[in-house]
Amino acid sequence: MKRILLILPMLYFAFSAFGQAGRIEGLWLTDEGQSQIEIFRAEDGKFYGKIIWLEEPLEDDGRPKLDTENPDRALRRRPLIGLEILKGFEYDSSKSEWSGGTIYDPENGRTYSAYMRLEGNNTLRLRGYVMGMRFMGRTTEWTRERTKRE
Fold first, then answer.
1. Across residues 32-60, what is the average pLDDT?
2. Alpha-carbon distances, residue 147 vs 27, 28, 30, 38, 139 (angstroms)
3. CA of 27: how far to CAs of 36, 38, 70, 120, in Å?
4. Digit-coded pLDDT (tens) for 94-129
5. Cβ atoms 72, 54 nearer than 8 A
6. Of 3, 31, 40, 114, whose CB is crowded by the most CB atoms within 10 A?
7. What is the pLDDT of residue 22?
8. β 47-54/26-29 pair status
9. Dihedral through CA 6, CA 12, CA 18, CA 24, nearest 10?
10. Are strands 123-130 and 97-105 parallel, antiparallel or unpaired?
């Protein structure tokens, strides 16, 4: 009986942290409203995000916008819609943040170390940084959306 009483709190906290981790899953509108990102948990248990909508999805000539700023020339022909820009985030319950991942900025072709925190339930603060120094970076806020934009 004593063992059960010791195990129950541990199970509660384990499931609670697992539930907290999934709070970022869903649809997010970027700070300038130019794109919608879907954040999801992959089979590896980590969180990823891909572009699913762009305010201006086409070039002037009617072709889909591509990842033209990518430093890898072979990847410059990838469409921006469907592009995975968040990779490998894990929830750290001690800091109430998702960290250990990267964010890719298709506007400049650079990838940054990053972490994310929820402010309330509908604001996601992301901070990308360089050289492992969190104070050397940029923060952006995304807003939760309930439906996919068309």
1. 97
2. 7, 9, 14, 10, 25
3. 7, 5, 24, 15
4. 999 999 999 999 999 999 999 999 999 999 999 999
5. no
6. 114
7. 86
8. unpaired
9. -150
10. unpaired
Classify residue 51: in a domain, yes or no: yes
Please, what sign has the CA dihedral across residues 65, 130, 100, 9? negative
Total number of domains constituting the chain: 1
Token pair belonging to 31: 């700070």
Break the chain down into helix, strand, coil percent, rounded to 5: 15, 50, 35
Q: What digits encode the pLDDT tens for the residues 70-82?
A: 999 999 999 999 9
Lowest-confidence range among 14-23, 31-40, 64-73, 111-120?
A: 14-23
- Alpha helices in the chain, H assignment, sequence order: 2-21
| Residue 122 belongs to domain with CATH number | 2.40.128.520
pTM of the model: 0.84
Residue 83 domain boundaries: 2-145
